[in-house]
Design a protein that fits this description.
- By secondary structure, the protein is an alpha+beta fold.
- It folds into three domains: 172 residues, no CATH class; 44 residues, no CATH class; 148 residues, no CATH class.
- The chain has eleven helices and 14 strands.
- The strands form four sheets. Strands 1, 7, 8, 9, 10, 11 and 12 form a seven-stranded antiparallel beta sheet that branches. A three-stranded antiparallel beta sheet has the order 2-3-4, with no helix packed on it. A two-stranded antiparallel ribbon has the order 5-6.
- Helix 6 packs across helix 7, helix 7 crosses helix 8 and helix 10 packs antiparallel against helix 11.
- The protein is globular, with a radius of gyration of 24 Å.
Amino acid sequence: MKSPEQRVVFAGVDGRTTTDLPEWYQAVTEDPDPVSFAEAVRQLPRAATTPVAYHNPHTDEWVETNRFSAVVEPTRLQTRDDEAAIDPLFNVPTDSYAIINPTDVYAPLEDVLEATTYDERPLGEVVFGEIRQYRGGGEVHMDVMFDGLAVELPGEREPITMGLTSGYDYFGCHAVYVEGFARDTHCANSIRALTDRKTVKHIGDVGDFRRWWETILEQLELVVNDLHAFILDAQDITVDITNVPFDLVEFYDLLGFPAYLARRAAEDARSESDDPFEIDMWALHSGATYALTHFFSGKEGTALDGYVRIANDILFNPDATLEAVTHTFEQRAQEVTTAEGQTGLEQQSALAQLERVSSDVREKAHRFESREQQLRDRFEALVE
């Protein structure tokens, strides 16, 4: 992932809480001296509007317009041009654009964290994570996690810590968003998009953010038990690489991963499996999240979101994953069809192999559909 211009690590909701970073997170973070969440939010650049004018070259005059306003960082306007390190201008949107500043969104979250408990501990005492800034602080993304709110897997494997990922920008590209998130402490992989993404656009009334956060945290608690069940089921569904017409790198390539990510995902999935040739869907998912977390070279945003959806389908919808692989393989097989329109015997045999594997997966995967629907029904009930 493209490195942020600034990264701030936080622990505890505010200065009244004495929260230490979990040991596993201290081992992977570059900042051993965190600030509180409230302080980290208040360090973020704010935005304000100023009038916009255009230059009339015929009269050599500047003419103000009410149709647009400049979105700027107000404190940077106080610095002379020759001293300015960062351009104060973020965007010049139409007059329908409504600024939503960090404290508008995240100050209500501070209150909710103080009032919400899990396992008899206020979430404000166990919250930690990081905030990443891009484009002069005009684009922000953050991971908010809760020490102790976790999925415990069988054996001695480290737990999966639950949380939220959220962000916004002032450029009109990202509305304020939040969705369920988890970090696999075993390998520091990020598991994103665990709940439906909720967004608030920079237009008009932004509504009640406090209730917004309460609903999201209620959804997150529902995900804990369901994620545990999804992982256990996924560990029972395996793909025998010796029985399909492609290797592990090609599996990720057929799903749409670029070559450099497919290679990294395959390396991790193979290393995490007891049998490097018969790999379960949880290991395949873990390989994908490993590649995206540690080697994705693009920005946070649309491209990453697309790969996250592919990775999550491996875990939450293995049947659809095998269908996607088969569909892409068939397309490529058709491209090498002979001029007479006959697919070679090698391709026919390969497609038959894929169909057998897909049928085996389909028999086991029907339980995923009912569980996913139950989870979404409970989400909708919280909103009503």
